[in-house]
Design a protein that fits this description.
This protein has a domain at 57-81. It is 83% helix and 0% strand. It has four helices and no strands. The two termini are 34 Å apart.
Length: 94
């Protein structure tokens, strides 16, 4: 029973993606970019935090500091910008 629903969902999603190829390409590129960034960040965290490699090298320390600043900025920017549309206006469009 559960596998029948899964098969139906997969069939519907593939049919929908096939009918919108631009969206399918954009979704695939977004997933690829997200997975790539996740792997890169994990590699840095694994090397510096989990394995406790010495950061005596100033170039490595500066690269790590830059990555930390970029990561914090990337997380903070969306929270600092308020929504441009009010919740009542958004609900009116529903």
């Amino acid at each position: 029973m559960m596998f029948e629903h899964l098969r139906q969902d997969l069939h519907y999603s593939l049919r929908t993606l096939a009918s919108r190829p631009v969206f399918a390409v954009a979704a695939a590129l977004t997933l690829a970019l997200g997975i790539g960034v996740n792997v890169a960040v994990f590699a840095v965290v694994d090397t510096l935090v989990l394995r406790r490699v010495s950061t005596a090298d100033p170039v490595l320390a500066s690269v790590v500091a830059a990555l930390v600043v970029v990561a914090i900025t990337a997380c903070a920017i969306p929270t600092l910008r308020p929504a441009r549309i009010g919740p009542m206006e958004a609900l009116r469009d529903e």
